[in-house]
Batch of 4 targets.
Target 1
Amino acid sequence: MLEVTSLQKSFDGFKAVNNASLSVKEGEVVAVIGPNGAGKTTLFNLITGVLKPDGGKVFFKGEDITGLPSYKVCRRGMSRSFQVVNVFPRLTVFENVQVSVLAQQKKTWNLFAPSAKLAIGETERILENVGLVDIKDATSAALSHGERKVLEIAIALGGSPEFLILDEPTAGMSPEETTRCIDLIKQLKEKLGITILFCEHDMEIVFSISDRIMVMVRGSTVIEGTCEDVRCCQEVQDAYLGGSDACLM
Amino acid sequence: MKNPLLRGKLPWVIAALIVLFLLPLFLDRFYVYLAAIILLTGLCATSLNFVLGYGGVFQFHHAVFYGIGAYGTALMIIKSGLSPWLGFVVGPVAAGIVGFVIGVICIRLSKLYFGMLQISLGSLVWAIVYRWYSFTGGDDGIHGVPLPDIISSPNGAYYFTLTVTALSMFVLYRMIRSPFGSALQGIRDNPVRSEMIGVNVKLQQLIALTIAGFFGGVAGSLFVVVDNTVFPDMMFWTLSLELIIMCLLGGWFSFLGPMVGAGIIVLLRTYVSGLTVYWAFILGIIMMLVIFFLPNGVLGYLDRFVKKKARGG
């Protein structure tokens, strides 16, 4: 479904992403892992059109989407959540998700119909799925960090994506929130059949929900394979554990 | 956004309209004139707030569209020899077109840079109007614009202004509550995220700028009706600053905030200029007080106050 080949991006001569490759098949959950500064978020920004790559190609559903602006990428069925909470702070939880649904339904040029009567059902359904329906009238700036991270995912779901990118979905969450968030991600895969690409620092989560793992170090893909392959790969251990012999986990 | 201040608002709106409608029956000619000026200035500030408070676009030189609306209407009436009513279409449309053109040039920049470039381009328009004696009358402006009989009397002008302002405000309100408005507010809060949910941010803002320019132009053409004159100062940047202050003072996150702000500023300007020539000085002090004590404006403050009461606090 997604095919990334030797993607490159430099910032002022610093190669943030250098020769990153990745492929995700329909229905898979794929994790990108790597030390801080490995270029995971940059990679996601390149795939989703927030940044334009210096080299390499991104294919989505067989079509070349390299360098397309984000809104066009989104309209092709790809959504994402952000690592740093990136919601609409002055809107309520409901409106946060609703505006995403409206955008997906291509209604944002509609100047005269009242928003208050549109996309109610879809928005409610998403809020129920992620468990935010009780606080739907709260202004999103008033939410806790964990709730805002969930709202992040809810906004991304507003676009009815076939393909979802989650950038550290559980970062900063309490243990209970993390458990709920993992359940949510599993549900998205199983119930809604969404293909998921995510990055995460918590190895337990990575190994428990992903089908395959891609490891990035200093902007390059080190290995891409099943959890087993990655666990015992020497280079991964070098990167994470400074050359220890022990298998990860 | 659930707003306790505006809950059950329809009866209030109707009551306000009835009061405004009856105003000329018990007010002097001068006060009727003043009320009309407040209405049209409020409309102009509201159209600015459409992009400023709801769109997050730093439209620093909105008075240009006010001026173009006025000049478009006056010149059309004087020079074309066609029906004067056509002037009221040409003015706003011209303002909308200029809004679009300036928007196209400025939209690639964001925030402050947008505002600075917009001030420069707007001042350019002002300079042209100020210098082009043969066409615009230069710094003399145009006086005694002939109007259709029905709106040439003070009361006729007032009712025309009231009707057009009320209609325009209604249309702007509907737009803010529409999906277009929802997307616009999303862009204000977070442009990167808006792009990522499939909104074409720049195009959306550009259309909003065109709409704001158009309604700024409507306000300008109403000024021709009320005052019978146009002059280049209508598009001088100090007026734009006053419009921004109106939005901030009234509350730029409330729909009626700019109208309230316009009321306060116009009244103050009228009465304070009678007492002192240092109107700008007074305006500066007001601005400072607003920033320190009413960061959400008068209506924002009232809104919070009412919400607190509603919670029983």
Target 2
Amino acid sequence: MAQAAIELIGINKSFGAVRANRDINLEIVRGTIHGIVGENGAGKSTLMSILYGFYQADSGEIRVGGQPASIKTPNDAIALGIGMVHQHFMLVDNFSVLENVILGAESDALLKKSIAKARSELERLEREYGLEVDPDAIIEELPVGLQQRVEILKALYRGAEILILDEPTGVLTPAEADHLFRILKQLKEQGKTVVLITHKLREIMAITDTVSVMRQGTMVATRETKKTTVEELAELMVGRRVLLRVEKGEAEAGGVKLAVKNLTVKDSRGVTMVDDVSFDLRAGEIVGIAGVAGNGQSELLEAISGIRHAVSGSVMLDGRPIDLTGKADPGELRDRGLAHVPEDRHHVGLVLAFEENENSILGYHDDPRYLKGPLLNIEAIRNDAKDKITKYDIRPADCRLKTANFSGGNQQKIVLAREMEQDPGVLIVGQPTRGVDVGAIEFIHKRLIAMRDQGKAVLVVSVELDEIRSLSDRILVMFAGRIVGERGPEATEGELGLLMAGVEQREAAE
Amino acid sequence: MSTPYAKLPAWADYGLIPVINLFVAFVVAGFVVLLVGENPFRAAVILVEGAFGRGTGIAFTLFYATTFIFSGLSVAVAAHCGLFNIGGEGQGYIAGLGIGVVCLAFDSVLPWWLTFPLAIIASAAMGALWALIPAYLQAKRGSHIVITTIMFNFIAASVMVYALVGFLKPASSMAPQTRTFLDGAQLPKLNWVIELFGAKIRSAPLNISFLLALVMAYLVWLLIWRTRLGYEMRTYGHSSKAARYAGISEIRIVIIAMMISGALAGMMALNPTMGDQHNVALDFVSGAGFVGIAVALMGRLHPVGIVLAAILFGMLYQGGAELAFEMPAISRDMIVIIQGLVILFAGALEHMFRPYIQALFASISPKAVGIEAVKGKGA
């Protein structure tokens, strides 16, 4: 019988009122790929952070290779052969690959010797696992897929036998994700143990041997992947049946609400991010913009919502132009019925240090409903927040709780509730379900479709192809700042994937 | 993950932890006293008795605290908007110019209760104006507010020297200060309040501007947590991107916040000039603007905390003066060391003892840190 690489016995961990992990028991078999799925806030990340030494469990035992282990810091975890690849990469952007790999693990006081040693070690790792990266490339010049590879190399360089990957495919194209899975399989063949944390069930089915499901801080089930189905896992995660693809009727597109013409946007360095983009958004339809992250979608959204300066082109909202000089007042656009759910809810859409009710008026704090003479009408604001909490099922249902203490899915619901409840004519949404759990995804998708059915115009930008295909009535694909194609919702993933990778365009150019 | 620290009950968070920090600061200060060969226990007794032992001591403590409340509030208002105003010293100093002009012009014709509001307006306006230029440079040009405000402290000092050896000085006088204000610009003392409690006061400068400071503390609370402007300031202070998204103008909010901050700093000049010396003299601010930074940090940028921290610093000033007098081995500089230690432990190392206290609370009573609360509050 295979030996356990890691055993977790009776792990408990609380943050204030939240019991993030309760009585978790988990055994991860050596040489397997073990998936851990669960909704956001189910406690996956907390559990892995305990294993990696970021947090200390309140009680419980960790055994590594059969031996009881005390993991107080990430260094303890590394010494025990546990490596972690974080969702947000921990790389120094202006260092080379080699420098990043040895950072913190320099073998010698003189850098030159360490680098030479690392170079030969890196070559060996590359040969063994097919992890090709140019060791002298600068991180910021590498695509994200390769940056992630550097993170994996970092862990292996430190002698990791057990590799934990936290939501590794969030930033990858389908092709890059496939490549990652090939690498993971190779690692497994070499006897390494891989723990994959994800909320994407398809990935679990494709690559793992065993899968454990977490819900509300408890481990609800462990299954052999071969013997389970996506439907069963989804039900275990959420605790009830979920629709993985939201049902929706035909769109009844009306008049043009938002007309974008020849829009060109440059970033602060003068690089063209949005290149001559034109499209119409009609009432009663959802237009999805697909594309790999960083191909100008963010800048497009910001320009339309008046936050970012555009070089040329025009955007008409209900036939009246939007000021694209970067001096537009987003408050005025809100009054004109343009609501915006930004991609980055942590820094833009929300103030994490605020109480929930304070965030529920962000951008609408001028509304007379929330004011009482010169003062804020605290009572009205809180009652309003409570209504939204009930209506959008935001948990915990405490409008005085600090926003940072809500899970990602609930934070997103706070933003969506705020923007949707203003009854806007046009709703533009960036990454509606990034870092959001399955149950909440279903809820958010249903809401967006309900908006459409009420005759609102909805623009969705997402890097999740599934989401784009499930929501959109029309799909626009962005690559390198341009719209390289328009497809209907029936377009296949392969077709869109090729467009996203810029393949079709390149062929046309040749 | 969002909060690595479990929640403590409010009384422990806002009461117990500051007290422990303060205690440790005094223990370390005690060792310093020991080092210069004095008895730390006797020194502590002299310090506390000097500050609170007699009516006169209390009045002096509150007199010092008055200035610190203003300067602490000034720092806090800017800090809530993400701005570090270290120009309180200069804004307070230049406000003396406004006060001087108003008092010299009206002290012979108006009673104090008419001069006082005029002087309040003049001091606030001068302070706000002095903060306006750095604020504008920050908002429009991105010149860092820390650099510009500190440079404006030097400019204020030079302007005041120019004014005090020039037009503010009586022609016949050799001293760089205004003439003594007449009754019409002298603020009434508040010593009788302390005497109501049976304490005796010989002569102490505690005056009505202490009440103004308390009113301002309340207004600042109202501004920050109960007005739209305060909401916008806090939004900008936490995240300029979120503020942009919410349609809050960066230029407008930076300028307004700094002008309010400058106005509060300006008002601190009322206490030493109209309340105590009855003139405007060279260097009358004497560092109170900088103490405000420590007061604001220690008071956790909350008006209640600032009032308490200001009283603590008032105590260190008053008790420290007594201590320097009673124990010649302990100089004024030693007092500064003690103040520094208080700032270090209460401000910079604020979270040092927190994890231990949390562990203690969790082991004594899990309920106190809210572990059982999830069922009731959740879903």
Target 3
Amino acid sequence: MIEVIGLNKSFNDRQILFDIHAQFVSGKPNLVIGASGSGKSVLFKCLVGLLIPESGQILYENHDFLSMPYDDKLKLRKQIGMLFQNNALFDSLTVEENVEFPLKMFSSMSAQERKHRVNECLSMVNLVNSNHKFPAEISGGMKKRVGIARAIALNGKYLFCDEPNSGLDPLTSRVIDDLISQLTADLHMTTVVNSHDMKTVKDIGEHIIFIYQGKKWWEGSKSEIDEARLSNPELNAFFQASF
Amino acid sequence: MNFFTEIGQYFLFLRLTFRKPQKWSVFWRILLLEMYQIGIGSLAVVALIATFMGAVTTIQTANQLLTPSDMFPTQLIPKFVVGTVVSTSSILELAPTITCLVLAGKIGANIASEIGNKKISEQIDAYEVMGINSASFVALPKIVAGLIMIPSLIIVANFLLMYGGVLATKFTSALTYDDLILGARLVFHPEYVRIMMIKGFIFAFLITSLSAFQGYYTEGGALEVGEAGTRAVTRICVFILFFDLIIAQIFLGL
């Protein structure tokens, strides 16, 4: 389980996150939702270590990510896979080489074993016959699949997806959502999805955290959200605006 | 960011960069690629500039020293003096400094924009999330490749500067091949070559590290990547000229 305790983050004099407390449930898709500028991307970057918060704790299985020694942090990071909003595929490498990259860096697999694992990951995301194409030669949806394949290549415990549907048409968005949900279940990963798309919430959100103006405004399960909307005008307004 | 903050950030960047590579086999492969791009990729431009510069320097020096004037009658200055001037200025200044100023534009802008582009497209973040020291991964192979290839290019440039001078003697009656070579041999001093190589290593380090630094801290979009390239080239040129002066004063100052 991932747990956030009392997280505060500011840039210069502007505070972005205010005393965030949240839990991300193991083995399920957890969604962080909120309007643009609400601070969810900052929270997301703090969770994966790209930003350092001023105060608070981020516990991965009860171990504080922020205070753990450098070597332990490196070990933990190998358990983390991330799908970036803009995919962040290495543009000088082919699809196959992108997925192979973490294996080359962190595994002792032979070239043959790596190739086998790459093909296995690409087939998990339903991407075949594109191994030798460069990122510039494939569609947005395919790039997302390659990003997911790269994120799961090392068989990590945690998958972070930053706005997985941005720039995709509704149909492809649905496919990517289903893929994330399916991989979470099949690989028993703890998945955290950052999204402002209520369709994603409806489709795959098992545990939802709503961020409003840098504060955790609401946290609960998908089944609870409709009831919560009645007593939570900010959540309701966000929900209504999405449809 | 003020000047002193930037200097501090540059040294922090260097401290991050000079770490043991996480996987040597990957590092060697990237290093070879970078050596090819920096060395072989710049050979043509260096060769062209050095040859022409050698020829022009020879013609202009011959014109200035061998043209009769009231103060310096021609017969007082032997023709081989042109060779001494051309060879000494080639070794001490033209080969290391001018070559590196040219390479600052070619390699420096290239490195800054390549790393800057990786930064704005979140590729640097992707390395970090994977647990890779991104500064070391993207910058160290470029710096090491520069330290190997740029001094090598300077040596090549030095030979081609003299070759340019030799070519110039074919087109002028004021100076012969023998005069040029005699002058070059008369003043050749191994210490000059040592100074040239010291300059080469320092300038190579400045070109690669400053451009990687500018690229690594790029924020924004395509416009900022372009600005990072321009900023890198400007700063490299200023620092090359500054260190050129310092080295000249330390090793040759009277």
Target 4
Amino acid sequence: MARGDNRDKQLSAPTEFAAGNGLLDRRLFLQGGMAIGSAMLLSGTDAAAAGETAIDPRPKWMREPGAEFRPYGFPSLHEDEVVRFASPNRVMRNNGASWTPLHLLEGTITPNGLHFERHHNGVPSLDPEQHRLLIHGLVARPLEFFMSDLLRYPLRSQICFLECGGNSNAGWNRIPSTAEAGYFHGLASCSEWTGVPLATLLHEAQPGEGVRWLIAEGADAFAMHVSIPLEKAMGDAMLALYQNGERLRPENGYPLRLILPGWEGVLNVKWLRRLELSDRPAMARNETARYTELLPSGKARIFSFVMEAKSLITSPSSGMVLRQRPGLYQITGLAWSGRGRIRQVDVSADSGKTWAPAELQEPVLPKSFTRFRIPWRWSGAPAVLKSRAVDETGYVQPERKVLLAERGRHGFYHYNAIVNWAVDEQGSVSHVYDDDDQDLGDHPPVDAGWD
Amino acid sequence: MMTIRIWAITLLWTLAGTEVPGAEIPEGPGLGRPAPAAYIAAWDTDVMADGAGLPPGAGTAEAGTRIYAQQCLSCHGEDGLGDSGDQLAGAQHKLTDEWPEKTIGTFWPYAPTLFDFIRRSMPMRTPGSLGDDDTYAVTAYLLYLNGIIGFKDEMNAVSLPKVRMPNRDGFIDARELP
């Protein structure tokens, strides 16, 4: 790689500062020709930095035939650190969650093998030939469908994010998390889902008068069940059969899962086997005792379905180091909103004193990951990087102290505050809270358990 | 016919608030088969918050003590104080305390939900293995541990829905918040 050879010359080119502490105009990179420094995990190696020994006119891999075909491809062996991070229950190890390594990915589509997981009692190994879906309850025609039936329906595709209601919950903790960005905020992924619009099947079953809710149940050992308002079920809800072009992965609900774009993950029931139309919600354990947010008043929010707008910078981010210090870097990250499209993402390099709009990668799709990027010239001085999403409804992602003032410290779910990454003089990046957002009380940190 | 017309009106109403591209409902090929009633009966084990769906049978905390020790204690600990599994009882702190404890006694709004959850999801290693009487008994034991019912109070399809949980009014519908 030629990076760095003429870095100084390029850095001396005239540039336009867009905000304080070195943020540049978001269009700068589009003009072309800028070499940028890389932010890498501390564990990463950098051959270019280590220096070449001798010029090899024909490296080893050009002097022997390459590998043969294989029926299903895998990532390069050199990418073996790009993996999910799992946190299972210490006894029941099939109960827990695994995080998408958002900090190691680019673009907006999550590879299927890296989609986040939240299982309450493991991944069932069910037989798709035997699996059936029942639609019953307040309907004129109770129906059953085998998967072979559903595959014959007119299919639709929709790209959308999926986010666990408990994503980012380390943010409630008194002490800033030291996890990498993905292992902190990566209970969120984005895929193209293909399947049958739920409304088509509900229509076929002929719902009766008074139907207000849909109770969905999965065929896992937990027999997960939750209640969904009819308006969502008749809106953009889908029964997904395919994920990014291939049939669902077992850990994502094979052979059938509910997809409710923009709504919290637990409602997107995996291994779906039953849909009951009802005049009232079940008030199931996982919509009362769990997936509700305790407020300072002692009351808890229930039916908080929508995942509000959130963003985070994925690079540079916690645990990385800016290797070409100081210099020109590309700040990149993800934003999404359960209410629709991302309208704008602002980035700050001076802890929120000044902000500059980031470039949004087209296409900007509703309820989907949106990639943002902005160039930054790091002076070598300490900096605090932030990103702030605004969605098409005008909702602005809150600062952490604002979220805590509204929700207290024990909501556990629906944490969507602005994320701070501090860069120190050595170029090391870590997670920090604002100076005016420090809890100096003598409280234990929140134990964000997943039982 | 009446049903269909009402449904069409409902459809228009429900779709008005959504932003689905091409929001018209695609016509399906109608491949659904009549669902066998036996399947529905066997699969629909939902117990609603008001107790609808509770089966015949009964149990007391007295009977549940032994079942808890055999089936639950290894994860949920002595007296439901929690271990690798959730703390179920014995909260020392209220929900408004600096360190709130969310247990069945302090947080769960409906007693029948306990029956539903235990029967559908517990115990983790052998889910669905508890019979209805044993499920009533474990439910009773957990309510007893939380000081909500007595040791010999019988829980059944009639008595369980009448149990008023301390946090019954503890929830606010987020859709009605500003």
